[in-house]
Q: What sequence folds into this?
């Protein structure tokens, strides 16, 4: 054995001083990763794992049928209603061919309140409408035979929508993986009737007649000619015809129907990085049979409006209608998870809520102890709706239907709903 000199000992000591912290850090890091248990984190799932910290998209749910909460007949003018969107304090829809107008309809009566013509365009097969903060987008990409080479999305500048000189431009696209354009009516896998627009991209969700799946494609959202890139697929076991994305809560709901015209909703949520098919997945049947459902929209992520086209084949006839479904019972915990805080949550009943639904009023009755405190009302996205100081024992808020948070100075916020 060789003698260890003082200089070599110091070299070993220096090396250990470098390696030891690195080794410890690596071990701690690995222990932390192992400690992050993945699994189903949704308490409503049949395989909920209370020990799971990271959701892995494995949640399974019982078969559930949604019951329609309202249903109204639409005008014959909208017999081919094909898309829905909430914008500018109205629900807007359109027909799917030979009609270049958008229609504002009343959410309760279904009556047409306004119609706007889109100039200098042709409606080959408008199947969907979406939006971002600056533009409306209309998907002219219906492709039942799979042979269209003129697929496009119209982009309308919101600030010019009500002007005579409406600003409209076009996004042209083709599917990167489509090589065969032989007509094949109602058997193609390159039909599309659903899309959403996020901050960075347009995402298409195809209506695949062949295998009853949906494929997600990404398209650049700027005018020009683009290739739609395949992102992922999902076996929905049906035909997807609409999509609604509530971005602030990472909730995407696809609308569709089976080959026997049984409508369904497919909720995709707890989504990370716009990876839509790798979060939680929950499919809902509905109690409205034999409806060719086409349009879907929401203003709060919990109450969804759905429209269906007129459909008739002996012996079945269904007329165009606007339906509403309430998903609050299934997603209120996801939207409003319980939070731990040392701040009190109205411990002594210092205020309570009562509603006057006829006037969209929420009445907050306060104890004398809280008079003089500041208050704030925000919506589910955190947008401030009302603010002020408690001056009397009764505070009356007139606000639209939806979910809100009431925050009183010194207390945790409390959730309330206006119907």
A:
């Amino acid at each position: 054995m060789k003698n260890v000199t003082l200089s070599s000992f110091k070299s070993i000591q220096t090396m250990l001083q470098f390696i030891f912290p690195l080794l410890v850090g690596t071990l701690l890091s690995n222990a932390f990763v192992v400690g992050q248990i993945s699994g189903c984190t949704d308490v409503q799932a049949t395989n909920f794992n209370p020990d799971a910290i990271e959701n892995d998209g494995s949640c399974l749910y019982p078969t559930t049928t949604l019951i329609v909460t309202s249903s109204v007949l639409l005008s014959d003018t909208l017999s081919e209603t094909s898309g829905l969107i909430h914008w500018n304090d109205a629900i807007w829809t359109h027909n799917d061919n030979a009609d270049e107008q958008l229609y504002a309809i009343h959410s309760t009566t279904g009556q047409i309140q306004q119609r706007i013509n889109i100039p200098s365009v042709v409606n080959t097969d408008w199947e969907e409408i979406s939006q971002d903060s600056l533009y409306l987008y209309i998907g002219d990409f219906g492709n039942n035979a799979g042979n269209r080479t003129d697929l496009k999305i119209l982009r309308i500048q919101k600030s010019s929508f009500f002007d005579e000189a409406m600003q409209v431009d076009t996004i042209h696209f083709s599917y990167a993986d489509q090589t065969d354009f032989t007509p094949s009516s109602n058997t193609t896998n390159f039909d599309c009737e659903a899309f959403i627009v996020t901050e960075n991209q347009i995402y298409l969700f195809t209506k695949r007649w062949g295998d009853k799946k949906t494929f997600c494609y990404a398209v650049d959202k700027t005018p020009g000619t683009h290739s739609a890139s395949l992102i992922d697929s999902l076996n929905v076991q049906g035909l997807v015809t609409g999509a609604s994305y509530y971005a602030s809560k990472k909730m995407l709901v696809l609308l569709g129907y089976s080959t026997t015209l049984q409508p369904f909703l497919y909720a995709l949520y707890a989504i990370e990085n716009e990876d839509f098919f790798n979060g939680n997945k929950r499919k809902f049947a509905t109690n409205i049979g034999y409806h060719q459902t086409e349009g879907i929209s929401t203003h709060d992520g919990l109450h969804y409006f759905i429209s269906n086209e007129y459909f008739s084949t002996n012996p079945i006839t269904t007329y165009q209608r606007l339906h509403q479904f309430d998903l609050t019972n299934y997603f209120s915990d996801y939207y409003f998870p319980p939070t731990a805080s040392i701040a009190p949550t109205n411990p002594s009943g210092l205020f309570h809520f009562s509603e006057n639904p006829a006037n969209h009023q929420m009445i907050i009755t306060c104890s004398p102890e809280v008079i003089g405190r500041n208050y704030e009302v925000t919506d589910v996205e955190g947008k401030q709706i009302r603010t002020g100081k408690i001056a009397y024992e009764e505070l009356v808020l007139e606000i639209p239907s939806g979910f809100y948070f009431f925050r009183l100075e010194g207390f945790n916020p409390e959730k309330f709903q206006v119907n």
User: Anything to note?
Assistant: The chain has a mean pLDDT of 88. The chain has three domains: 6-55, 67-335, 351-418. DSSP finds two helices and 32 strands in the chain. Residues 6-55 form one domain.
